[in-house]
Amino acid sequence: MIRLAASRLRHRAGRALVLLLGLLVAATGFTVLTGTAETQRLELVGTVKQNYRAQYDILVRPKGTTTDLERSANLVRANYLSGIHGGITEAQLDRIRKLDGIEVAAPIAMIGYMTGNGYVDLPVTDLMGAGDRTLLRVDRTRVADRGLTRIPYAPQYAYLTRRPLAHSAAGGAQLEHTSEEVAPGEHVAVGTSLYWPRLAPPSGPFPFDHGPAASAWSTANGRGDGLPDKIGRGRPGEASIMLEQEFPLLLAAIDPAAEAELAGLDTAMVDGRYLDPAQDTPRGEIPLIAAARPYADQQDELVISRLPAQAARKVVAGLPAKALRSYVTGQTGPVVKRVTVEADRFYADMLRTWQHPVSSAAMQQYVAMTRYWTAGPVMYRRSADGRVTPVPVTNDPKVWQDPFLAAVVPELGKAGSAPIGSADTQFRRLELRTMGGDVVRDNAMLVVGRFDPERLPGFSALSSLPMETYNPPSVVPGDDRANALLKGRSLLPDDNLAGYLQPSPLLLTDLGGLRKVARFSQGGQLAKAPLSVIRVRVKGVTGPDAVSRERISQVARDIVAATGLDVDITLGSSPTPVTVDLPAGSYGRPALTVKEGWVNKGVAYRILYEADRKSLILFVLILAVCGLFAVNAASAAVRADRAQLGVLACLGWSRRKLFGTVLTETGVIGLLAGLLSAGVAVLLSSWSGLQVSMPRALLAVPAAVVLALLAGLVPAWRASAVPPIEAVRPAVRVTRRARSPRGVTGLAVAGLTRVPGRTLLGATTLLVCVSALTVLLGVTYGFRGRVVGSLLGDAIVVQARPADYAATAVMFALGALAVADVLYLSVRERDTELAALRATGWRSRSLARLVLSEGAFIGLLGGVAGACAGLAATAALAGSVPPAVIAGALGAGALAVLLAVLASALPAMLVQRLPLAAILAQG
To answer: Where is the ABC3 transporter permease C-terminal domain (predicted)?
Structure first.
């Protein structure tokens, strides 16, 4: 039996080489491609290990703060913490810290928004006219949203004189009692002309509701209008216009020690000192640290005009305020200066005052918290394609009232005051909170240091959570129109307290300051449950391995059991761009389509899980294609020797002996293919850089032998099971009733149906190839679609695609070879029939078209079935079948037909060169 098998291999070298080539390609492809799949999986895990962990592992929130959008889409909006004002008690924080496995638990309490004022002196000495007096008009516009929003202030008038100014009033508004020394010992009242607020109460809380305003400035003594907060700011010999800008400041409380351990905040200080509960402030003020910059997009554009000289003379002439205001409102003059003042300058002045307040016999300066606001979350409408639209809201004007100011100036307190940006479109519900207690003793605040968020220790950009305690939010253009309007820049927060984008907390206090604010705050839950969230880092977490995940899960379960609070496991979360259709603003900004970095919770988990499934599918498809090719090659070798096997059966060889001979032959070919495959795999791995170890390469030997033996089982059984007389007949099906096929197409269909097993084998090979390509497109689209362009998802898809498509290309190559082998064997087995057709008048071209048609039908059968199977698998894996995947399935099916036609080219050429005389004489 062994000698016969060896003899058959020598005398049938061509067919043996075909089987050897098939097994070599199969074994090499299996070894290299599975090595590629494993390399790919390790890269996926490595990427997730490097980027999966954020600043903290668990986020503890008050019960019931999960949004509908979060529940339905697993998405959390960036900076959503600014909308959570309390809900967790300090007792709950203590219980969490006592649990096993807690490395650090850092609380944040979002107290609310307060406002602060900054001032900038704009030099205008060079703008004064030739005489002693000049009256300037300042037209000021707030510019935000990258220049798209423009909110005009009421005009401001500046009276400048080279003569000294004096103030005679012991109290009250000093501008009303200001006089100018027009000659030695001779004073003329100018305040009666310039003090305009008394003409009418403000119509609303915004700066433009207060109407035009006037000020006075002297280059002789620099006293200006003499208001207490401006004394000493001017210098003799210079004239200035004082500009004021009001900032909304989000105040939050932290535990300084925990924050230093979790985020390294103490290392980001650039001035002053860090928060330290052991250090008292000079007068018991609430200690604050402030962000060094405002991180806001708000500028003031100023256009300064010089009014006619007669306007300034009317001031010194004592024209009553109402008449002067009416007069100058209608006056124009040449523009003498245009200037833009950035928010940074106002913010720096505000911090300087808060950090180093003036304290002298003439003036005691302090900063007190008399009121603040809490802002609710933005509500959204979500469309079917995943886009979201924030819903505008309208707040009651009473929310801007200032009870503290009303006690001093009733008409101003009733109207209230608000930053000018808050006049724009609003998206958040505001609630006013007022402070009780003594303004100076209980509510005074002092900035003890400044921190720069950019100096915080960095965390991976691929897996950063919304660290809004320090990072300012931003949105980027979402389409070409928005990109053109924004000039490629991102949108940033401004001074709209209820705006869509909110600034990160610019002021931080410690838990002692939080308790002081809570004690005197009127309304809200600061006194009972002041903490908004608690960020927890778990001990012993090293990566997304099972042990680390279990440690985090156990701590999360313990937190829920101990506190009853909502818990999010943030391990593996990643920023995900969400398309936001932002409605138009009220002051020029059109509706914009933007993309905002939200957070997809648990992306790393999903990617790891889908990556494992994708690797499993790749293994199965590689084995399927390799197995089908080997089965087809082994079947072809056995079918080619059916006559010889039939003779042996006639000579008395038993079925068992025939069965063993065929398996021995295929086993030897498999052994040779495995040995060659091991060497080729090592060479390919060193050339391509793939990690294929020697033990893995040697696994090709038993794999090839087993594959060859399995592939030869059915052909060997069929060759040994049929009667001897049947073994010398072609393996075709004889129909019960003969039909006369019409044309080449009908004859091609009839030829394929006569050998259904062989036809299905070739079609099944293409089916696997087409379904592999379709599933690959589905998985790739599933990663991008289900992870919504997540940075983790984008990086992994890019890394995986070359190996996946290389594997698919090898599968298609094997499928094409399998189809070519099927058709070649069909031609050899039907050579007598084909020669008869040629002898009866068929042209060579018609015979070639017959073979090409058979190949096209095999390709069509495998392509359609493979496309359907691939679409079904994609739907099961990715949860949907997008149009792009359907188009890919159609393309894969078309590729199968094309490859089948190309594979049938060689058999078609062979059929045209059949030796008619020899075949007909033999038949």
So the answer is: 617-723, 807-909
